[in-house]
Amino acid sequence: MASGSVYASLAGFLGAAASCSAKLSLGAGYLRALCESGVRWAVERRSFTPEELHTSACEWLHIPLRLLCGLLLFVCNAVMWTFFAKALRHFSSSARATVTTTASNFISSAFLGHVIFGESHALLWWVGIFLTLLGLFILHGSSPQDQQLDVKKDE
């Protein structure tokens, strides 16, 4: 059971990483701004002179970075589906694997969005996360034997 939770959690994290990669690859403005802040940081540290570092390099450097993020999107999705399939194999029900992956994806999305993009979420979003996690704990709290006994009683 623990290995299924690990696979489902990793699948959720990789789904969030794929979403971040898609956002980075489709939004050129963020990568260009990141490049320009890196150039400013290097000039301030006196690692390079302003003549050596041209911000015009950021005009073309964002294109290979966007392609790299696009490739990362496909790699993260492929590995995510692999881990999700392994989680389905280890859990007794597909609902447990799905809810665990979804909860991990939401939490990872919040973390990566805050760290990479500086995003913050409203109270209603956190209430939704709490309800999802509550459902996850309820699903994981019921054992497969209890579910089988309920089915036998109905027959």
How many strands?
0
Strand content: under 5%
Indicate the percent of residues in helices. Answer: over 70%
Number of helices: 6
Overall tally of structural domains: 1
State the distance separating the first and last CA atoms: 28 Å
| Uncertain regions spanning at least 5 consecutive residues | none
Q: What form results from the Cα inertia axes?
A: elongated
Oligomer: single chain
Largest sheet: none
Q: Would you list the SSEs in sequence order as H and E? A: HHHHHH
What is the C-alpha radius of gyration, as a whole number of Å?
Answer: 22 Å
The secondary-structure class comes to mainly alpha
What does the average pLDDT come to?
A: 81
Organism: Pygocentrus nattereri
Domain EamA: 67-139
Keywords: Membrane, Transmembrane, Transmembrane helix
InterPro entries: EamA_dom, EmrE-like, TMEM42
